[in-house]
Structures are given as structure tokens and as C-alpha cells.
Design a protein that fits this description.
heterodimer, A: about 180 residues, mainly alpha, elongated, B: about 350 residues, alpha+beta, about 40% helix
Chain lengths: ~180, ~350
């Protein structure tokens, strides 16, 4: 089976079906990634934009990486940022003012996970980049190095951010309580 | 249990529905339609034509409208520039025709496939190298290294697209059969017959209308306003667009299978028909006789010219250069691709002997 990198190379030479094959391999993962961050409805609205953005930027794909999923997460993240920034002013993120980067999808996540309110509060205290690395590793099953690719940061930086995030979570009183009491 | 296990418990969310995935793919296909209908091959470095594009955000699909908005007047109709392009015969005293004859009469080919190695020099002086095999049976194998090319051949991963098949068939027909028929095949290789080759006026009008409707639908699917109606290109504009397709598709065939004598001879014959927009000169470069074939900016969108350099002895491509026009409103960067072509056997390539 051809690698994603091979297929992207073929698409650059005019084989559009090859790029559709890449999308077919990863559409469920990317769809779920979007849904985890902005909810199902918004994810459905953004998904097509992600594929078009990926197609238009495929010439920049580093084909030394055979697996394109981390790159697609990065494209999706950039589209989410645009989506968030273009959201109507009357419907802002609840704590957007606290986000240094001007964009933070996590409040939307938080509101959907009432059953884990304690963990949610602890997550809210993490820095956005710490939460993003944590989410990519815990939810998307990426390696730390792959999470670094998604965020365009060195692997060492991603590793440090993950370490900081996990440490902060473990030391948060509400999370420590959850870890002491088995949950279902 | 640790904090990562807790995190995983938050990962379950309602996934997008199947219809959402279908819609997303439709949007992707619509975006992909742009290169398929505007530029006759991906490597072309300009947007055809830029003039008249309504909005930057919609330019991709808008370009498709312009490309689709070209219909050749029917043969035997009112005549004019379009007809003259379609009917221009090869110029028998052209150095390209003479070279084509020499290529066709050359020694039997060794091996069973053509290998073309293209090396593109990026502005930062880095090199991009691509390998293309065109087998005598019509298969196409590609790779961005000797290893990936070898793997592709070993797996019999034929990557020939419909476009590849059409341009190679047209080139081979030009070498051995009816050049005018071959030219029509080359002009319509990239997509359906939106140039209206060989259609009656009524059929050409229907083709034009259908093309416009398809593009407008693409705009609507993307949530964009369809572009304004544009008149059907005629006269020089039509001539230039047809010449663009012939140049681009013919050279694409050459760069895919240059070491196939039939393909090479056919491409030379087709380029020889473009006497009004292409100039040919012979010179000596480093002790090597070369033919330089220059295409005027008018057939390349107006922002630059192209120079294809061939070995004057055998017609093999040496380089393809794009030169931006000095005062172009939308200049592209200069670019040079160098070519090395040779005959190989698929068995050797599969075994890594390249």
C-alpha cells in the first residue's frame, strides 16, 4: 500500500484521486478531532474547509514523513482557529479573555463534559499549548513528537509541555481526588 | 489509573454524521476541479488568465469558468483565428519536423521503458528530483528517489492517469499517423471538450453553457457567489488558449516519456505546428548543439515566456525554463527544470539498478 507521502506526491503530479485516498484514510480521526474541540455541528461545518486547505497546501507537506495524519491535525487546528475567530461576536467563548493567543477551543470542550467537572476545572488552568499537546497525545493517540509536528514546535518542547500538563493535573486537588477514588 | 486515563474518558463525543463526510468530500472535489479544468497540467506556473477574475477568494473556481468558456468555432464555419490554429499543418522545413524524422528513423530502442529524471532548482538553490518511468506498454511509474521509483515498479504500481494516457496516445499518433487528429486529442486531453474541437456551433454552445452551469454549481456548493457571465473567448484570446493547451500538454508528454522515440517524435511534430507562437533556434552550448524552442508570453498567461531546450542531435529534453516578463503585473518566479532521459528495463529498475 502506498504511503500517505507517496499519495500526496502523486496528487502533486495531477492524480487527484490519490489525495482523496489520503483523506479517506484519516477522515474519521480528523472528524472526531474537530468534534472534540468545537462540537459535532461545527465540526461538520468545518470539515470540508479542512480538506480544501490541506489540498491547497499539500505542496508544503514534508514527504520525509510517510504518515500524514499529524499534518492533517495541524491543518485542522489552523482551520479551527479561523473558525473560532470568525464566530459571531455575540457568541464568544466563555473565557476567551483569558486566552493569550486569542483563541482557545477548550471551553467548548469543557461545557460538554459535565460528568468530569473536576478534571475540567483542572484542565482550564493549564496553558492552551499544554492542553493542546495533552489532548493530541491522550485523545488522538499521537506520539509527543507527532504532537510537536501538529503544533509546529520541536519535539523537545512538546515533551516539556506534556510533562508540565501532566504534572499540573496530578497536583491539582480535584484530580488527585479523582485518582484516589476509582471512577467508572 | 493516572491523569492520562482520566483524559481518555473525556474523548468520547458524537462524531460527524456520514452525510457530513460526503459533503466535505464534495467540497474537496470542487476545489480539485480547478486545476483539472484551468491548467492542462499541474506544473504550469500561471493562472489562466488572471484578467477578469472577480474575487481573490473565488479565483480558483472562477478560473475554471474562463477555461471552460472557450469553444472553437466549428470547422467550415465563419473561419478566423481559431480555425487557423486548428488547421495549421506541420511546417515541413521546420527543424523540429526534420528532427522528428531523424528520431523516428533512429536505431531500435533498447530496454522496454523510458526514464526521465527531472531536477528542479528552487529559489533557495535546493534541488527537487523526480523520476518518471514510461513503459513501452504505456504504464507510468514515479518516485521522488531511486528507492521509491524502484518500489513503484516492483509493486507494479501503475500511476498513469487518464490525462497521461491521453497525451501519450496523442503524441504517439502524431509520430505515426494523422497530426491534425493527434492535435485534437492533445487539445482535449485535460478534460472534456470545452474547446469545442470538431463540434457544431450548436453543440459548442451547449458545451459552453453546460461548463458554465457546472462551475456555477461549484461556487454554490462552496457557499460563494457564482462569477459574472463572461463572453465566450474568440479571436486571439481563443488562439492563445488553444496554443497554451497544445504547448502544455505536448511538453507534459515529452517530460513523461522523452526516451520513447515515438513520443518524442510526435511531440516535435506537434510543436512544429505552433509556428505563430513558438520560435526555434539552434545554437552551441558547451560544445553541444541544442535547439531552443521559445513560447511567447501570450500563450502562457502574459506574465512570462518559456524556453524548452532540446539536444539537437536526438531531441531529448535538456531543460525547461520559465522567464518572468520584466513588467508583468503578476510576475511568477523564474524556474528551471533540468532533464536527463535514458532507456531502461523495468526489471533493472525493480531490482534497484537505476
Amino acid at each position: 500500500m502506498s504511503s500517505d507521502a507517496d499519495l500526496i506526491g502523486r496528487s502533486l503530479r495531477g492524480d487527484t484521486d490519490a489525495f482523496v485516498e489520503v483523506i479517506s484514510r484519516h477522515e474519521t480521526a480528523i472528524g472526531n478531532y474537530l468534534a472534540r474541540r468545537v462540537g459535532r455541528q461545527a465540526a461538520e461545518d468545518v470539515l470540508g474547509d479542512v480538506w480544501v486547505a490541506a489540498y491547497e497546501s499539500r505542496a508544503n507537506y514534508d514527504r520525509s514523513y510517510p504518515e500524514a495524519r499529524p499534518w492533517l491535525y495541524g491543518v485542522a487546528l489552523n482551520r479551527l482557529r479561523r473558525h473560532w475567530r470568525s464566530a459571531p461576536a455575540e457568541d464568544p467563548a466563555p473565557d476567551l479573555t483569558a486566552v493569550a493567543s486569542g483563541w482557545d477551543p477548550w471551553p467548548a470542550v469543557d461545557t460538554r463534559v459535565d460528568a468530569q467537572a473536576s478534571l475540567r476545572r483542572a484542565l482550564a488552568r493549564l496553558k492552551p499549548e499544554e492542553r493542546e499537546v495533552l489532548g493530541l497525545v491522550a485523545w488522538e493517540d499521537l506520539t509527543v513528537a507527532e504532537a510537536g509536528r501538529v503544533l509546529a514546535i520541536p519535539a523537545g518542547t512538546a515533551r516539556r509541555l506534556l510533562h508540565q500538563a501532566r504534572k499540573a493535573l496530578r497536583e491539582a486537588p480535584e484530580v488527585a481526588a479523582l485518582l484516589r477514588v476509582p471512577t467508572t | 489509573m493516572d491523569e492520562m486515563d482520566l483524559m481518555k474518558k473525556l474523548s468520547d463525543v458524537p462524531s460527524p454524521g456520514p452525510e457530513a463526510y460526503d459533503r466535505a468530500r464534495t467540497a474537496l472535489r470542487a476545489a480539485m476541479d480547478e486545476p483539472a479544468t484551468t491548467t492542462v497540467r499541474p506544473r504550469r506556473r500561471f493562472s489562466w488568465p488572471r484578467a477578469g477574475m472577480a474575487t481573490a477568494g473565488a479565483a480558483a473556481v472562477a478560473a475554471a469558468v474562463v477555461a471552460a468558456a472557450v469553444v472553437l468555432a466549428p470547422a467550415g464555419g465563419r473561419g478566423g483565428p481559431a480555425d487557423s490554429v486548428q488547421a495549421a499543418p506541420p511546417v515541413v522545413d521546420s527543424p523540429l519536423v526534420k528532427l522528428a524524422a531523424a528520431v523516428g528513423a533512429g536505431a531500435p530502442q533498447t530496454g522496454d521503458a523510458s526514464l526521465v529524471i527531472s531536477t528542479k532548482r528552487a529559489p533557495d538553490h535546493s534541488l527537487e528530483v523526480y523520476y518518471t518511468i514510461y513503459s513501452d506498454k504505456g504504464q507510468v511509474f514515479r518516485g521522488d528517489s531511486e528507492r521509491t521509483l524502484s518500489d513503484s515498479v516492483a509493486r507494479n504500481d501503475d500511476q498513469a492517469t487518464e490525462f497521461n494516457r491521453k497525451v501519450m496516445a496523442a503524441a504517439r499518433l502524431a509520430a505515426t499517423g494523422d497530426v491534425e487528429k493527434a492535435k485534437a486529442g492533445m487539445l482535449t486531453a485535460a478534460n472534456r471538450n470545452f474547446l469545442g474541437i470538431g463540434l457544431s456551433l450548436a453543440e459548442a454552445e451547449r458545451e459552453w453553457k453546460q461548463a458554465r452551469e457546472e462551475v456555477a454549481e461549484q461556487f454554490r456548493r462552496l457557499g460563494k457567489e457564482p462569477p459574472p457571465v463572461t463572453p465566450r473567448p474568440t479571436g486571439k484570446e481563443l488562439d492563445d488558449l488553444m496554443a497554451n493547451h497544445l504547448w502544455s500538454n505536448s511538453t507534459s508528454a515529452l517530460f513523461t516519456g522523452a526516451a520513447n522515440a515515438e513520443v518524442r517524435a510526435g511531440v516535435l511534430k506537434l510543436l512544429a505546428t505552433m509556428k505563430d507562437v513558438v520560435t526555434v533556434a539552434e545554437s552551441d552550448v558547451g560544445g553541444r548543439r541544442v535547439l531552443t524552442i521559445s513560447a511567447v508570453p501570450g500563450i502562457l498567461g502574459g506574465d512570462g515566456s518559456a524556453v524548452l531546450t532540446l539536444d539537437a542531435a536526438n531531441g531529448l529534453p535538456i531543460s525547461d525554463e520559465y522567464i518572468p516578463a520584466p513588467n508583468a503585473p503578476n510576475p511568477s518566479k523564474p524556474a528551471v527544470v533540468d532533464y536527463q532521459s535514458s532507456r531502461v528495463t523495468l526489471a533493472d529498475v525493480a531490482a534497484g539498478k537505476i
